[in-house]
Amino acid sequence: MYKKIIFCLLFLIFPFFVSASTIPLAKIGDKYYDSLEEAIANAASNDVVTLVSDVVLNNTLTINKEVNINLNGNDINAKEKVFMVRGGFLDISGSGTIKETNPNYGVIMLVGSTEVTDDKYSGVHVGKDVTLEGWSGIFINHENSKSYGVVAYLDGKINAVDDINGGSGVGVYVNGNIKDKQDHPVVNISDGAEITSTGNGLYIAGYSTFYIGKAYISGVESGIGIKSGILNIDGATVVSNGEDKTPTQGNNNGIKASGTAIQIESNNGYAGRIELNISNGEFTSKNSNVIYEYIGKGSSSLIYSMSFSNGTFISKAGKDVFNFSDSFKDIHSGFISGGKYSSNPSEYLKNGYAVTSDNGIYSIVKSTLKTVGSNSVSNNSPTFLKSFITLLIIVVLGIVIYINRTKIIMFFKKIKQKF
After folding, report:
1. Residue 362: in which H helix or E strand, if any?
2. What stretches of 83-229 adopt beta strand conformation (E)?
3. What torsion do the CA atoms of 205, 206, 210, 214 make, to the nearest 10 degrees?
4. Total Cβ atoms within 10 A of residue 195
């Protein structure tokens, strides 16, 4: 009797053991798949691959077509290089984390085309509730120093951590071998995106264009390190919490720590032609300068243009906001037309602007006089205007009297004779 009962129980339980080994990991519509690889292989361009469980990949998953993945509250893990996008577009939505468990390269690697005519060849979109965690979140690489047609959109979060050898993390990495200025990589970091890093929030070595909105970018070694390309910032918060490591030596393989919010290395081993445009935002260094440019290799600054129209720039350590090479100062003059600064930026003002000070914060105002370097003077005060007009009248009267001095003397002589 007992044997029959045990047999019946085993018969009822056995199917659960069988099904447990074949639990599906993803689905497309109503069709389920045992692996993410299988689901992606069967996905059409408009299909959404929805995870129904956490996924552990044994190898890097290559994306060479349009793929949409909804994490659906689940995570994807791999030892390193979770996704390699080459000739495709990866759109990640839903909520969840994609992670390198042995951080080494990056969570998502993008490789562009070797043909300049290949527009939008490789791309990724990271949704607002998606977190990327690894040595880098997005790593833009090259093939034979070419990487045409790369585009990246970050709405979510990146947590860049030390690699397996202790190397400091990088939020978004652009390889320095990318030097072509035509059809170069473009990175869009949108409002609400967040990047935290044990090293650099962004490391922009290769030639690329970045558009950064009201995002949060924090690094220990620097908030942003750049050697080439175009950096446009409108509203971002950029922070560096690391030690002051200025002056910083140049590096032909990476970038050394500085502790500054934005670190610019002029190094002629890279594409150079650096353009920095800041229209708003908050830029803070805990221990060093805020904006730092130095010659890493060569003899000249590789900053092509710079424009600051607004923003707040604070060195909490009381250091100068700006620390530029002599070459930069020789080449460039005024680039500031707005903003607030924790040290006096007068020598970098555009013509027509001046500085006012209140409790150690220097604000930029429009001036009706020309601004000449550090001799900027604000003449918005009524007292200044009255003094200037009075002086002008005195000078004019003096000139008139001097020119007509003979007539004036004769006039007073005639008056004297009458009396």
Report:
1. strand 361-366
2. 83-86, 89-93, 96-100, 108-111, 122-126, 130-134, 136-141, 150-154, 157-160, 170-174, 186-189, 194-197, 200-204, 209-212, 216-219, 222-226
3. -20
4. 30
311/242 same-domain check: yes
Q: For residue 4, is it within any domain?
A: no
Q: Which amino acid is at 19?
A: S
Residues 396 and 333 in one domain: no
State the pLDDT at residue 40.
Answer: 98
Q: Is residue 19 part of a domain?
A: no
Residue closest to 254 by CA, chosen among 173, 187, 136: 173
Residues 365, 390, single domain; the answer is no
The answer on pLDDT for 100 being more than 50 is yes
Backbone angles phi, psi at 142, to 5 degrees: -135, 170
Establish if 416 belongs to a structural domain: yes
Within-domain flag for 312:
yes
Mean pLDDT over all residues of the chain?
89
**Which residue is associated with the tokens 């558009």?**
211
Domains contained in the chain, number = 2
